[in-house]
Amino acid sequence: MIQSQILSLVNQISGSVNSPIRSLADVGLVVGANGQLTFDQSAFQHAINDHPQDVAKLFTDSKSGFGTLLNSTI
What we know:
- This protein is mainly alpha-helical.
- The protein has four helices and two strands, in the order αββααα.
- The chain has helices at residues 2-10, 41-50, 52-60, 66-73; strands at 29-31, 37-39.
- The protein is globular.
């Protein structure tokens, strides 16, 4: 059950429709084969270079940031 909740959280889309960074996939983090999280460093670098505030918000927003939601889920 916890694995399913975390997987759902990893795949979640949040933020404004107009925001260029709305999910972990937008920063290079996706669930790959066998349910393993994979990281595309090039996609992350591109996202952080072009939209640093949006990337930070994705992880740290006090209401919808991944860190906040992961903490609540766990």
